[in-house]
Amino acid sequence: MTFNEGMQIDTSTTSSGGGGRGIAIGGGVAGLVIMVVALLLGADPGDVLSQQPVDRGQYTAPGFDLSKCRTGEDANRYVQCRVVATANSVDAVWSELLPGYSRPQVQLFSGQTTTACGSATSAVGPFYCPGDQTAYFDTDFFQVLVDQFGSSSGPLAQEYVVAHEFGHHVQNLRGVLGRAQHGAQGATGAGVRTELQADCYAGVWAHYAAVTKQKSTGVPFLKPLTDDDIRDALSAASSVGDDRIQEAATGRVNPESWTHGASAQRQHWFTVGYQTGDPNQCDTFAAADLG
């Protein structure tokens, strides 16, 4: 998906840099792999994470120069600017759909960063912290998604990841994000339902992305989606399915340890959101069949 060159990027809610110590679990693929392997081996994922190598000293990563992010042309050129511009677009869509919507913060980091949810390294991947209402992105993750998980490298594959993390912010605002930690777990548990709902919310954003105009310029954020764009998003959704990751990591699939949902389920719920554009259709918690 391509940004219109006339749109202006708003970096007011975005910061860039890094620094901190330790590891925090987020919503990323690498952290998911660690958890999947730990559960398959009968270990406590927290114990496994605590054993990961960490620089215990204070570490400050160089930040991306956000002054480079000015227009849609910059979003099409720089992946960091694409994250910020996508965040602008997602904010605009949810501001129209959800009364009382407030924008989350966005943190671009490299190496390590400190959050209200604890410290995190790039190994965690993109994640959302409800404690500071911030979505965190190390953009190197997008290449990992391609090289290690077989995702498409297209723009909408990356934008889907941003919209998914913002989906968790929407859940937080609606008071449902905490449900991920309660009740049954596994293939039909609350954790999987939470992640699939965020996928559906990402699809809702995609439904409106090319028709939602930036108020300051009157220009749509993005150009109309193509079939290739949708294939890119579905490729990313499939690449981070629990079944696909488990198969690659261990050679077998164990639904009882799923945390994010199967590849087909993640594609299904993105498609539900994209085709309907209706957040009410994303009630994965009430769904008898998750697809």
Key features?
291 residues; alpha/beta; four-stranded mixed sheet; two-stranded antiparallel ribbon; 10 helices; 6 strands
Strand and helix layout:
Elements: E1 14-16, H1 29-40, H2 45-50, H3 72-77, H4 79-97, E2 105-108, E3 112-115, E4 118-121, E5 127-129, E6 134-137, H5 141-147, H6 155-173, H7 190-208, H8 227-239, H9 242-250, H10 263-276
GO cellular component, one term: membrane
Biased composition (Polar residues): 1-15
Keywords: Membrane, Transmembrane, Transmembrane helix
Structure description:
It is a single chain. The chain has 291 residues and is of the alpha/beta class. The chain has one domain. Helix content is 43%, strand content 8%. It has ten helices and six strands. The strands form two sheets. The chain has a four-stranded mixed beta sheet with strand order 1-2-6-5, with helices on one face. Strands 3-4 form a two-stranded antiparallel ribbon. The longest helix is centred in the first third of the chain and has 19 residues. The protein starts with 13 loop residues before the first strand and ends in a 15-residue tail after the last helix. About 14% of the residues have low confidence. It is found in: Membrane.
How much is the radius of gyration in Å?
Answer: 18 Å
In total, the number of strands is 6
| Quaternary class | single chain
Indicate the mean pLDDT.
85
Count of separate structural domains: 1
Main β-sheet: number of strands, strand sense, barrel status?
A: 4 strands, mixed
Question: SSE order in H/E notation?
Answer: EHHHHEEEEEHHHHHH
User: Strands of the largest sheet, in order across it?
Assistant: 1-2-6-5
Shape: globular
Unreliably modeled segments: 19-26, 28-61
Level of helix content? 40-55%
Distance between the termini: 26 Å
Strand content: 5-15%
- What is the helix tally? 10
Helix and strand content put the structural class at: alpha/beta
